[in-house]
Every structure is written in C-alpha cells, then in structure tokens.
Amino acid sequence: MNHPHVIRIHDYGIQDGMPFIVMDYLRQGDLTQKLAKGLEIHELIRVINQVSSALDYAHTKGVVHLDVKPENILFSDRDVAVLSDFGIAEFQRKKSGVGERRTVLGTPAYMSPERALGHEIDGRTDFYSLGVVFYQMLTGQLPYRPDRGGNVALRQARDPVPQLPNQFSALQPIVDGCLAKSPGDRFARGDDLRRALAEISTEEIIPNAAVRSEVVTTVEIQLIQPPLDEGSSTRSEIRGRWQTTTPWTLLSRGALAILISVLIVGGTWYLIEREPAVANALFSWLSPSDTPSVEEVWNTAEALRSDSNQSLSAIVAGYSRVLEIDPEHVGAQTGLGDAVDAWKGDIREALDAGDLALAEVKLNESFNLDSSDEDLAFLFEDLADRRLAETLLEDARALLQRQGRDNVASSASAIQAYQEVVRLDPTNEEAPAELDRFAQYYADLASRDAVVGDITGAMANMGRASTANPEFIGLDSVREQIQQAATLQAEIDGLLQEASRLRALGSLIDPPELNAAERYQRVLATDPGNAIATQGVSEIIAQVQRRFYDLLSDRDFEDIDRLIDRVVAVGLGEASIAEFKSRYALERERVEQVETLIAVAERMIGQGFITEPTDNNAVATLREALRLDPGNNDAEKLLIDAAERLASVAREAHEVGLETEARLYLELALTVRPDAGEWRELRDQWLNDMEPDG
User: Fold this and answer.
1) Where do the DSSP E strands lie in 397-476?
2) Whole-angstrom Cα distance, residue 537 to residue 543?
3) Among residues 296, 269, 266, 275, which one has the least CA distance to residue 224?
4) Is the separation of the CB atoms in 526 and 459 below 8 Å?
5) CA-to-CA distance for 538 and 499, rounded, in angstroms?
6) 3-class SS at 362?
7) CA-CA distance, 517 to 537, in Å (whole number)?
8) 41 and 206 Cβ atoms separated by less than 8 Å
9) Where does this protein have coiled-coil stretches (predicted)?
C-alpha cells in the first residue's frame, strides 16, 4: 500500500526460516508519547483526520486493520500521523458459514462489539476503534472499563456510549458516530467522519487548548501556585469563566489561571490553556523561600475537602501535597482515606437514586486514581447492571405500547424483562409495580373465565398471573373461585396427563404454550399443594440442569442463552434461574479471558517477548490461560511453538559462537518443555564440547 498516512513496507520475506519485514523507521514516537507532551485541540483533530484517511485507503484495498490504537499511530519527522502495524489485518471477505466462529486477535479495549464476539466485520470496525482512540485522547480514559473478570467485551456490547466532559460536548456527535453498537449506525467512511469534524468549530470547545496525558509534577504545581493571599480574581470569577473549579486557587499577580485541571496522581489527561504571557508570573514562584508550609498546604487541603464542588482528584491532590512535605502527617493520611470512602459512598447514593450519569463520572474519576480498588469493580458492575435494567425497561414499555397486555406472547416477554430488571436493580420501583399490574390483569381474566365456566381459560390466566407475581395478594380469592368449579378436578387431571405426555416427547420447556412445565405451573397456580405437579416441576428442573451443564461443558453459549430465556419464561424457580445465570456469566468471562490471553501471547511470540520481561511474557501468559482452562489446545500448541522458537534461537547462537546465550535459550526452552529429550541431549553435547580434553 502506498499512502502518506500508512507505514511504508520496503521488503519482506523469510530468512533462515524466520519471517522478516522492512519498513520505515519513524523516530518521533507514537500517539501515547505525543499526548504525554501535549496536543492542541486542532492538532488532535488533525491526527484523527489523517488516520481516518489512512483507513479509507486501506479499506478501498479491501484491508481491515483490526488493531487501531495509540501505540500503532506513529509520527514522521514532519509530524505527520502514520498508521502502522498491519500485523493482524485481514482482507474483507464474504460472510462465514453458519456457526463459524471467527478467530479474534487484537486489543480488547479497542475492539468493536461485533469483532469481540467473533461476528462478521468490515471497515466500520476500524472506525469503532478510532472512536475509542478519539475518546481516550479527549478524556484520558477508555470509554468502557473491564468488569471484575477483566472482560470489556460485555460492557462494549451493552453499555451506552459514554458522554464527553462538558468542555468537549461539541465533539459528542463524533464519538456517537464512531462508537455506535450497530455498524449500520457508525461512520461508514473516514470521509464522513472528516466532514462531520469539519462542521464543528474548535472555538466551540476551548480556544488555544491542549490535551496532555503526562502527570503534572509537584515542581510544575509549585510553578503555577501563587501565595494564597495574592491575586485579585476570586474563585467565583474563575468558575464563571471556565465553568469548573480548579484544584488550587491558581491566581497569578493580576493574571487568570492557566490550568483548568491538575492531578498529581497518574492516568489522567490534563487540559491546559496556553497563555505565554503568564510565564513570567509562573517563574517568579520558583524560589525555595516561596515553598508553602505544612500548615498552609493542610489548610488548603481541608478547604478543598469541605467544598462540595471539588473533584476527588483535587481533594486527593491536596492531601498528597501535604504528605509530600510531611509523610507522617496523620491528618492527611486519615483525610485521604476518608475522602476516598466518602466518594464511594456518593457513588452508591447516586446509583440508588438512579442518577447513573453522576455515578459514572464519579466512578471514572475514582478509577483514574486507583484502578486496583476492588470496590470499584463491584460498583462498575452495579452501574452496568442498572444501565441494562434501564434498557430493558425501555424495551418493555415500547412492547406494551405497541402490542398491549392482551397479546400473550408480548406480555410474556414484558414480564420476563421486568423480572430481569428486579434482579439487576432491586431498588427499581417501576418493574415490581408493572409485574403487579400484570398479575392483577390476568387474575381478573381468570376470575371472568371462572364465572362463565371456562375453567381451562381460568387456569391458563391464573398461571400467567402467578408467573408475573406468585405472591400477589389478589390471587388467593381467584384461586378459591376456580376451586369451587365442579369441573376443576377433571381439568387438573387433564393438564397432568398432558404434561406427562409432553415430557415423554421431550417437550419440557419448549415450545411456548405447549410444554410440560407450563402445564404443571397452571395446575400449581390453582392447586399449590398438588403433589404430582410439584414432583413434575422438580424432575423438569433436574433435567434442564443436566442440559444446562452439558451445554456449558460444550461452551454452546447461543443454546444456553435460549435455554435460560425459556427457563425464565416458564418460571422454573428463582434459585435455578440465579444459578444458571451466575454460572453462565462466570464461564463466559473465563472463556473470553482465556481467548484474550491466548491472543496476547500469540502477539508476544511474534514480537519476541517469549520469556521476558519476567512479569509480562508469552510463556507466563499462556501458563495463566492453561490455569484458567487446563488442556486448552490452542494454549498448549502456542507453548510448544514458543519453546521451539527458543530452541531455534539457541541453535543459531551456538552456530555463531555465542555459547553463553545458546545455553541460556536452550535452558529456557527446556523450562517450557522439560520432556524434550532431543534438547536435553543437545544441552549435554554442548556441555561436553566445553570440557577441556583429557
């Protein structure tokens, strides 16, 4: 490929059995390094335009890149963005056969939902990845956080597109157009993306602003922090200009603050307005005599803590500055922990109040400060569950509005959705109320049927009412009404016989309205103590459990999804449903984690990181994959490949006289494959060759 924004390949081939590739050497680093130094907004947009142009070109050649991320966006000596590393790119192809699972390689955090799930892809998957990069450039964080199991694919598939900070709201349509869940809702071409960007004036964002990812150092903070009693501008004046509150009262001698937000904890982007005129004021604060006392910094930290408008980042920065001056300061140590705990309490309150946007903002800030905090993983999962609950509520409302409650199939789907909402968000008030309305609706129908002698219809509607809410207070009176019917026992006997026949045919929970489980449930809705129906349901649960674990063993996730949907629909008990969903979620997380580890290990082998660095190499990664999935064929094959690669390097080193290196690599190969007799013999032979003659 020949394009100004695509890395140039000069030669490739195989030399002595090893593949090689010769490409341009770009010495100006990658996008991650650029952001560490700072990029002005117009430069940032220029980078996105150039990369989207490269993607357009690649797509016209039928090539999908599949690994667009900051590390693969390099810069030439002329500061031109160049897309590199087409190592896992592939040609667009016709649709796979039914049931074919695509191999997924790449970086999970930048993968589109369809790619992470192994579905068909085209060039729009690259624009999703570019959208992740764009969001990360603007905010300093990925749009979707991994869940407890380290899996990000589920969040990408179900969580809504995140909102940019207010100062970048003008760019939200670009993020929406890249990160849409459905490829059909995304930018189809880079030209469309560039046109959309051209319609947005950077003056709508922040003029002369720069985005920076590198941590602002203590020295830099001292550079911009004037004495607390100086300056004519007030906090309210600063907030009025920027619509935000800075971590420190950054007032120059008569000049406005140049720093919008400062963090002395890693992992956060900084937005800086560049005003050269302020430089002299900054350097006037360099002298050691101007270093504030512990008491002054402590007072500032406490003031930040008491200000409800302050971010956690600013509060932590305040206490951290105290601890830099006095590491043993008990008040700062306690205040730091209390502030973090209080912030997490605010997140829980926001979740319980249904303010998910606020909860997400606070969660993201906490994650930036300490990504290892286990409490945050649970809170992120809770947030994801509540967002899914909101989506289910919207779907159920729309379904009822279109079909009404008198449509049995639609009502069954709505009931199932509301029950899932109750499971995901126990504090939700709408879902239980809707389930009560369904129970009342079907109880009324059952009562009406009983009055006219339609016991079959009465029992069917009673079963539906019980499915919606078996504890609904109005069911007892309707149940008594049905039990008074002279034909009730005959109807029950008929349902039990029909259930037995359906079980013999294997129709345990399928098809809808014509399966054994629903027949038994109709009996139990009217006659809760019926021993035959109770036993029948227990046996069906046992059979379905065996089927579930067989499917889980085969990792047939599509059939498991269908099975769980049917178990919920026929109401086979909360305990069974909870067990199935919990085990299913854990297994999916495990399988996806193993797939990711194998993909990462394969990439490491290609890059030569087989046993080094110690804590992040292919062999260690594959060992972890095998710990999670013992006997995994792909992982075991890659381990063998890694060992063969090490042994090959050992032989090459031996041939050119690098004996120490040769023995080292051979020993490494043997640590991976201690059963390789040929290599042990080779090691012994080399050792013998080293011994002096007799």
Assistant:
1) none
2) 10
3) 275
4) yes
5) 13
6) helix
7) 6
8) yes
9) 478-505
The pTM for the full model equals 0.48
Write out pLDDT tens, residues 101-149: 444 566 788 988 888 777 788 899 999 999 999 999 888 888 887 655 4
Write b or e for each residue in 257-296: b if 16 or more Cβ atoms lie within 10 A of its Cβ, otherwise e.
bbbbbbbbeeebbbbbbeeeebeebbeebeeeeeebebee
Instruction: Please name which of 157, 152, 132, 153 lies closest in space to residue 142, comparing C-alpha atoms.
Output: 132
Return the CATH fold of 589-690: 1.25.40
Torsions phi, psi for 632 (to 5 deg) = -60, 120
Cβ proximity of 153 and 116 under 8 Å: yes
Say if residues 590 and 149 touch (Cβ distance below 8 Å): yes
Q: How far apart are CA 155 and CA 588, in angstroms?
A: 13
Average pLDDT over residues 254-281: 37
pLDDT given at position 235: 35
> Within a 10 A sphere around the Cβ of 500, how many other Cβ atoms?
15
Paired tokens of 273: 């307005």
Alpha carbon distance 38, 258 (integer Å): 15
The residue extents of the domains of the chain are 9-204, 215-371, 386-583, 589-690
Which ranges constitute the DSSP H helices of 111-152?
Answer: 113-116, 124-139
Q: How many CB atoms lie under 10 A from the CB of residue 222?
A: 17
**Taking each helix axis from N to C terminus, what angle separates 659-672 and 677-690, rounded to the nearest 10 degrees?**
160
Q: d(Cα 13, Cα 16) in Å, to the nearest integer?
A: 10
**Dihedral angle computed from the Cα positions of residues 351, 355, 359 and 360, in that order, rounded to the nearest 10 degrees:** 120
**Nearest alpha-carbon partner for 536 in 496, 574, 573:** 496
Cα–Cα nearest to 114, from 125, 129, 103? 125
* Single-letter code of the amino acid located at 27: R
Residues 310/247, Cβ–Cβ less than 8 Å: yes
Q: How many CB atoms lie under 10 A from the CB of residue 302?
A: 17
User: Hey, which CATH number is domain 9-204, 1.10.510.10, 1.10.8.100, 3.40.50.720, 3.30.565.10?
Assistant: 1.10.510.10
- How many angstroms separate the CA atoms of 40 and 52, rounded? 19
pLDDT digits (tens, 9 = 90+) for 89-113: 666 544 444 334 444 566 788 988 8
Return the DSSP state at 289.
G
**H helices within 505-573, ranges in order?**
516-526, 531-554, 557-570
Q: Which amino acid, 470?
A: P
Residues making up the chain, counted from first to last: 694
Question: Cα separation of 421 and 431, whole Å?
Answer: 6
Helix %, strand %, coil % of the chain (to 5):
60, 5, 35
Sign of the CA dihedral with 126 first, then 132, 133, and 135 last: positive
By C-alpha distance, which of 246, 268, 363 is closest to 314?
A: 246
CA 343 vs. chain centroid, Å, equals: 22
Q: DSSP for 48-107?
A: HHHHHHHHHHHHHTTEE----SGGGEEE-TT--EEE---TT-EE--PPPPTTPPPP--S-
pLDDT in tens, 477-488: 999 889 888 788
Q: What Å distances lie between residue 443 and 216, 430, 485, 489, 514, CA to CA?
A: 65, 20, 16, 20, 21
Residue 287 neighbours by CB under 8 Å, 6+ apart: none
State yes or no: pLDDT of 415 exceeds 90: yes
